[in-house]
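Appendix B, Record 12. Input sequence as logged:
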Amino acid sequence: MKRPSFQFYHGDWRSNAKLRRCTDSQRGIWLEVMCLMADGDEFGILRWPLKDISNAVPCRIAELRTLIERGVMKGADVAETCAQHLYTPRHAGRAGTAVVLIPEQPGPIWYSSRMVRDAYRASTRGKGTRFGDAPIDTPTQRQGGGPSASSSSSPSVKETPASAGEVPDGPPDCPHEQVIALYHELLPTCPRVAEWTDARQTLLRARWRQKAKPNGKAQGYASTEAGLAYWRRYFTYVAQSDFLTGKTDPKPGRPPFLASLEWLLKPSNFAKVVEGNFHR
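Logged structural output:
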């Protein structure tokens, strides 16, 4: 089934570490490839040799290989074998049964992991596949097709609008750049983020998922908007601390302390901030 459109997660696109390693030209090429993947019967999948893709974009095969080497474009070319691609659904902070979205198979086959995951979620939503029910090991086969590598890798899905109030399977993906923007907006005197390293990305992603999970004291959050609202409150609270914002007298010979985003995201520091240790 061909779709007239597909969801584009602009926050994830801008914060994705793999894409940030690519040039503007390579990111544009990947967007063109995704459009090709969305235009076929198998949403998110393209069963073309690299040569045909390079002609259709158009671009050089070397640029496509760069996308492959950097983990953006996944799959295998002619005479190669595509590795199995698994997806582990999450709900209420718990991991479910791993699902095979792309079985191991010979190429050519190229896919977007996000697109095939979205197609799988749409095809299973509302069908009793929450944790504790019978696990689904493979995606739904296309109507009229037999059990082949082609039909088993792309579920038949029904179009559903993103605004239909659907409940996600787990915490929303962390919108790194939007959280950084909130930090800069609400804590303008604190050190600005100049380099967004892998270690810093890991810290933010961990704290984002930590607060998204419901617990006995907080409900967590299930949408990007709700998550950003929490982090706005968090940085606003940090701004109320004289110590964290350099307003207290330092020890002789030392500059005032200013909390960096990395410092605020470290587990022990984060716990002390939310417990009010720096607001007394």
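The first strand starts at residue 45 and ends at 46.
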